[in-house]
Write a structure and sequence with these properties.
homotetramer; 252 residues; alpha/beta; Purple Acid Phosphatase, chain A, domain 2; 7-stranded mixed β-sheet; 6-stranded mixed β-sheet; 6 helices; 13 strands; 26% helix; binds fe (ii) ion; iron (chains A, B, C, D); TIGR00282 family metallophosphoesterase (chains A, B, C, D)
Chain lengths: 252, 252, 252, 252
């Protein structure tokens, strides 16, 4: 079972570089499934049905989200109706959408879970308990967890907590790929952050001048996705049977 | 001008792997200077004069710090007196120690600055202004900034803010090396986080069971540095003239 | 049904002024029950069995807690065994202790709940859901909720959320009594914070010089409960049948 | 020297109740100056020139601000040009506006300073140092500090820090008046929070249903100022010579 997981796609630059490089990635890795984090696909802030459909047309089959899941209200009905989009599982039950989905590939159930860390992020339900409950109630042969979080400690804790229970724990949210991809002791594939997919010369996808100015002036600012080239694509290739995790990092 | 910068050394495992591998690294890269972040060198929490001396004996020539700088009171006089230890420059003036130091190598002044990010960390003085003030008042040929911070956005902002003004901006604090080492547009060497040096199978250096339990139980816990092998060493090699940044990542 | 609720008792000054004034308060208000928040009763940090017993001997019948509940490990068994001490109900199930207790007075069940806000405090379970679940599962004639929280918005939200469902929502934690005691529309008695009981000339109970110095120097400091006179006692008198809430504020 | 200080005016309900009651307050207290915190006067979020002028027409002579100072861009030029509006003094120098103003009354200089706490708020410059610098550089006979902050500890620390150096330290921002108005040891008048001026049955001025729902659902929500009666006016009367601070709390 081979999977490509693409890190947070940011705006049109993210979609463009996916369009350009995904065919080559498919050719090279021959994946059974392509997953992407899409929480920043719509202008950096959330996702719309239109852009979700664009991502599906590009070949992405499952979209995970994160703290930006509620940025666009027009997405809410699609979160409910479209099984291909998952939002963090640890939002309260009443929130639209669901925190996991399953895909049947060659007779095997591949479970994809999205969950949010709590450290420096919103006060949601316990992510550890949320994932545990899904694992206890869903039948799966393979499971991939997108742990959307800020703190390295919390993502590593999730990796070790799930070691041996899921196929892979992949961090997202910081928009910078980490160099610590590995196989944990009981066989779970792990990386603290997959990184982002979008502009390369900005600050986590955004035009840098405004961000720097905000840090110095302490005044609010409106961020804009940088559209200048080059772009970057950050992803991981996972071979769930052979226990291989290979980072993919393209700048062009 | 060639420099080795070693990421946050955590406890005796960190010191042990430095002892084992630094001679090989020196042989391979032939650096003019060896710098290390030592904020976790004493049992994971701060630094003591005794352990600072141990690090100097291992060949480390300059020690930078971070948010753990005040963990051991016995260090305070040494922060004042020993020019080889620098703490974040953006603490108030009354705090012991200083935020930068200079080293003369082959007639050139190499300036080393330590500064702390503010996002998700303490409310210190503005790190951007603090660095700017040092750069405006100190004569230097080369400058390396250890930007000790949590948020990727703030570290990237510091990188771009200083691009062309300093030789390198190196992030520390998250204890996980990032895969984004690069040369910025105006020639500054950059990496979001150098990563940590210490145990490999813990959670940012600490025994994993206690951390996981704390995240789930929400109850306080006392963390202990993991001493089991393997250990990891994370560092970067910098060639400040040739504009080269090479990550070093050893697990053993 | 008449109740005295005493705000966070801080150290020996808090216990002393309770000892001096509680007899007079009892004489004046003739309460059926005396409740106190005891999270700072042991030297400002948590509670011990010995000091809990001291509070019981002073006439306090139920002790509620807050974020300091885990400061003293020796309290954990007593949290489990002694029905007179309640800790925030929204800690995970595995935590020692329980989040509510009931007292039978004149054939009526008085339910006392302790719950913690999440804003600027720990990421616990949802306090609104936690209280709702208790109310749905416990038989009660009267209910008092100690909402231990920082943000006024969250405490007011709890007040309005429970308006008509409980007898009283009393905020604690900020250590400063608010002037907004009132009867909400559906009859629930409410105050955003009852205030603290302990030294008067410190900073929320602590010697002021150290706190000021910490805010300015940004360096860690060890806080000590101020023992100089005068002391203050902050409490509320509640008449649950007559829908009366009367603040008590003694400085001596 | 007698002053009325009105706590955070929220939206049109806040302006309405000021209009209705300020004449009576003036008649009763005969103040030399009327100051109000106006950071929420424009629909709960910031201030506009039009609404600032409305407040001036109502008789308010000086407007202080807080963390909402940047909500309305159209205010920025007025922050620069109009000496009657002050924003927190501890924003970086480059920010529009100024952190203090002086008013000459009967030949005496009354200095009004606005400053923001840092705890749970933005990472600004040190508020203690910022106020100290103003006091060291401005000639004044009386000084009133609006300490806009969340944490009771930080506001109390400011009070004690300035005790004997200024006439009054008045907290704002939590929108709930505290019951701890007092004269500090060296004569400074103090209250932790003056409270808000606007709707009475909302949550710090906002319609309660949306706030409760947000706390429970963890989803973003758009807040609206409650316009139903009754309204509340929270203020303090200060007699700077006689060392008197009297809370004013009107609900109607
Ligand atoms: Fe993202
Ligand atoms: Fe995110
Ligand atoms: Fe560290
Ligand atoms: Fe650190
Ligand atoms: Fe307390
Ligand atoms: Fe507390
Ligand atoms: Fe306000
Ligand atoms: Fe405010």
């Amino acid at each position: 079972m081979k999977v490509i997981f693409i890190g947070d796609i940011v705006g049109s630059p993210g979609r463009d570089i996916v369009e350009e490089h995904l065919p080559l990635i498919i050719e090279k890795y021959n994946p059974d499934l392509i997953v992407a984090n899409g929480e920043n696909a719509a202008g950096g802030k959330g996702l719309t049905p239109k852009i979700a459909d664009e991502l599906f047309e590009l070949g992405i089959e499952i979209i995970t989200m994160g703290n930006h899941v509620w940025d666009k209200k027009e997405l809410y009905p699609m979160l409910e109706s479209d099984l291909r989009i998952v939002r963090p599982a640890n939002y309260p039950d009443a929130a639209p959408g669901k925190g996991y989905t399953t895909v049947k590939i060659d007779g095997k159930n591949l479970l994809i879970i999205n969950v949010s860390g709590l450290v420096y992020l919103d006060n949601l339900n316990c992510p550890f308990k949320a994932v545990e409950e899904i694992l206890n109630n869903v039948t799966y042969d393979y499971a991939i967890v997108d742990m959307h979080g800020e703190a390295t400690s919390e993502k590593l804790a999730m990796g070790w907590f799930l070691d041996g229970k899921v196929s892979a724990v992949l961090g997202t949210h910081t928009h910078v790929q980490t160099a610590d991809h590995r196989v944990l002791k009981e066989g779970t594939l792990y990386i603290t952050d997959v990184g982002m997919t979008g502009p390369y010369d900005g600050i986590i996808g955004v035009e840098k001048e405004v961000v720097i100015d905000k840090f110095i002036s302490k005044m609010p600012a409106r961020f804009t996705v940088l559209t200048d080239r080059p772009y970057q694509l950050n992803a991981v290739f996972l071979d769930l049977n052979e226990k291989i995790i290979t980072p993919i990092r393209i700048v062009e």
